[in-house]
Write a structure and sequence with these properties.
The protein is about 30% helix and about 30% strand. It is α/β, with parallel strands linked by helices and about 170 residues long.
């Protein structure tokens, strides 16, 4: 059995994998994704990015987005010549699509408004459930469910503590 040849092959394979992983880590990503919390994102006219997500902030696009765009509690503004290759989704925020802007995927707006220029191109489905009134029931429903569960637990504990009545003779 030739163990030194097998051992050398393992070392060479390990070194090759290490070199490939280091070289791929050193290369810049062509479309980096961005995520922010409370700080707005602006994509300039010559920028190319991947996915964009924003919580409690807004997104302004004048360049190219290779992925999806999503906000929770913020607005999305796609200006002239802005392009999104994926879907656009906004919860509790408005979406404005200017003339010349292109969206290859779907657009979904929940508890916000969709403002779309007639010259804008949206290839996918468009669904908008406007009005800020939807936020209250959505946020209130889990609180009501938790409150009912706590009330049930308190009732069961109190019921178990009641002394049992002796049987009448």
């Amino acid at each position: 059995m030739n163990t030194s040849g097998s051992f050398n092959l393992r070392i060479l394979t390990g070194l090759a994998i290490l070199c490939l992983s280091l070289s791929s880590a050193a290369l810049p990503k062509t479309n980096p994704s961005r995520a922010q919390f409370g700080r707005s994102i602006t994509i300039g006219p010559n920028e190319n990015v991947g996915d964009l997500s924003c919580f409690a902030c807004s997104i302004r696009i004048r360049g190219n987005v290779a992925g999806d765009v999503a906000t929770f509690g913020g607005n999305i503004q796609i200006e002239d010549q802005g392009q999104v290759a994926g879907d656009v989704a906004s919860f509790a925020g408005d979406v404005r699509v200017a003339g010349g802007a292109k969206i290859a995927g779907d657009v979904a707006v929940f508890a916000g408004r969709l403002s779309r220029d007639p010259q804008a191109t949206i290839s996918g489905d468009v669904s908008a459930m406007g009005g800020r009134g939807w936020i209250i029931p959505i946020l209130l429903f889990p609180l009501v469910v938790v409150g009912l569960l706590v009330a049930l637990i308190v009732w069961l504990v109190q019921r178990g503590r009641r002394p049992s009545m002796p049987a009448a003779a």
